[in-house]
Amino acid sequence: MAQEKNPEAKLSHTAAMILQAVDAGFVYGFSIMEMTGLPSGTVYPAMRRLERDDLIRSQWERQSIADAEQRPPRKYYKLTAAGRNTLQSSRRRYPLLERLIPSEEVGSV
Amino acid sequence: MRPPFEVATRLIEATVRILDLGLLHGASLLVPGGQRAEWRREWFAELWQVRRACAFGNRFRWAAEREIAGFCLGAFQDAYCLRRMGQQAGTPLAISFSSAWQCLLFLVAILSAAYGMARLLPGVRAERSMSPYQARSGLVLIENADDDAPARTISSGQYRAWKDQKQEFFDGFAFYRVTREPVDRESALHGSRDSSGWGVARASSNFFVLLGLPVRFRETDAGVDTELPSVVLSENLWKREFGADPHVAGSVVRVGLGRATIAGVAPEGPWGLPGNIDAWLLEPDSQIAPAGAGYVVAHLTNSGKLRMDAPRVPIKSFSPHRTPDDLLGIALGNGIPGEWEIFRFAVFLAFLALPAITSFSLGDFSVSLHRISWLRRFFRWAFLCAKIALLLPIVRYASLDLAYCFTRFNTNQALYIQLVSAFFICLFGMRWVLIDQRQRCPVCLRRVDHPARVGQLSRTFLAWNGTELMCIGGHTLLHIPSLPTSWFSSQRWMLLDPSWEFLFAGTVRE
């Protein structure tokens, strides 16, 4: 596990894309799917593994917010400090990552 | 859009939505129990997002539904991933395997396997499909009770005398004697003549009518030569010699010195009649050899049934020469218990014996302000009832499987195997049901885990010692004393209030 938290740990391109998408503000499962174009069977398991490795953390949206928007509450994901470090090293490994999903882009939240 | 088309579209839409939800629910069964509720919540919320994104006004579109279905199918990969992660981590798998639903699914799987085997085994099918004498009660086989006699047969003269006289206890008699006779037949299957020896019962023409046994394929005998006596084949012979040909009725065979027409096939089953019989040759009484000896089957009148107070009763009779004969009347069919009677008896015995091997108590509760809701109590008892309700058919079918896996009829051996196996499966199955129930958290019905020894055995009478188990969901602690005492005689549940939650971080409280 310690090795997995290492910022230099090598992530797959898919996992790096998901980290980049979360960093770019696409913070729930379906928005990440839409942004990356990856299918649900890839995105959600990848997010489980990222969460297991403490690279992202999940939190349920408050019910009152969801009620106000007349939809079910979402489970939001955000990068941890380890996740941010790992993303930095992944960007060096995959230079096109930032072009695919620009960090400046405002997410769907 | 025309209304019928719109209705059909709405129906399809509703069906597709139900299927989507079904997919998610199905996938959620793969997820370890402790994470399942949250997993479902997330996927249903995401499904809502997907459906909204794919919606195209109010119109139903197959492309959108395909996309949504594809999204739902991805849930299986996610659930499988979580399951694998649980296996690697170790502990959450215990949660998933110990949930109430999985326990019930496990029992349903065993029941399905036992039932499937019972459907396949020919012995069970024969036992369940028919009891040969269910169509007629009050049938008695009359035998000679003289132990010194070479055979327990009755002379044909005696049979004729009984039949000709008015009887108080019997209203019908049939006679048969078994001989080994050569049979010539023209094989419809092979187109050749072959000759073999059959065990032939030369029976009175009323034999099947008296026994109330249906003869199969009899209705196809139109145009058959009625001048010839008829022969009824046994099921075994019909399959063995005639390849189970349904058009066998009407064929002519030579039995011994005479010709006979095949009238049909007798039902398969435990007849309980003496003699190894392949076929019954039905002859008029006038053709029965006067000096022959055979077996007599009689039907009891109402007064006869009242006198028949046991499966075997002695009968006093007088021969045509006015000499007294000691006979024995053996009830046919009534004396053979059915599989249902054996099952009920075995279950009754098992419930009688159950207190000897386990306690009925499900444990006490520690005095606490925190109480279980009525709904939880109801679920707890419903779960226990469901387990027992699934266990009983398992006992029935598994015991039948064991009894009839090597035999085709309800021989005495099969009946004893069924009785013994049903008793033991029910006894130890009920023991497992109660032990399992005692180890399930009364709140979430998961099995408690993480046993810890508390106290010292050497201080039994000074302080409590025993084993403490914990509900993985953080609802309860279970204390099981090492040595039951007057102040702590049985296991005791301690309900945990929300102040304990910090100890169970990461688990889901229901």
Pick out its properties.
heterodimer; A: 109 residues; mainly alpha; Arc Repressor Mutant, subunit A; two-stranded antiparallel ribbon; B: 510 residues; alpha+beta; six-stranded mixed beta barrel; five-stranded mixed sheet; 43% helix; elongated
Low-confidence stretches of chain A: 105-109
Mean pLDDT of chain B: 80
Number of domains of chain B: 4
Question: End-to-end distance of chain B, in Å?
Answer: 47 Å
Overall helicity of chain B: 40-55%
Main sheet makeup of chain A:
2 strands, antiparallel
What is the name of the CATH class of chain A?
Mainly Alpha
Under the CATH scheme, the architecture of chain A is: Orthogonal Bundle
Textual characterization of the structure:
The complex is a heterodimer of chains A (109) and B (510). Chain A has 109 residues and is mostly helical. Chain A has one domain: Orthogonal Bundle (Arc Repressor Mutant, subunit A). Chain A contains seven helices and two strands. In chain A, 54% of the residues lie in helices and 9% in strands. Chain A has helices at residues 2-5, 13-23, 29-36, 40-52, 63-68, 81-93, 97-100, and strands spanning 56-60, 75-79. Chain A has a two-stranded antiparallel sheet with strand order 1-2. Chain B has four domains: 3-97, no CATH class; 114-124 and 337-438, no CATH class; 139-331, no CATH class; 449-504, no CATH class. Chain B is built from 13 helices and 16 strands. Chain B has helices at 3-28, 33-54, 62-89, 91-97, 100-120, 122-129, 156-164, 207-211, 235-242, 302-307, 339-357, 374-404, 412-438; strands spanning 139-144, 154-155, 170-186, 193-204, 230-233, 252-255, 258-265, 279-283, 293-300, 312-318, 324-331, 364-365, 449-454, 466-470, 476-481, 492-495. In chain B, helix 1 (3-28) runs parallel beside helix 3. Chain B is elongated. In chain B, 32% of the residues are buried. The chains are: A mainly alpha (109), B alpha+beta (510). The interface between A and B is medium-sized, with 21 and 23 residues.
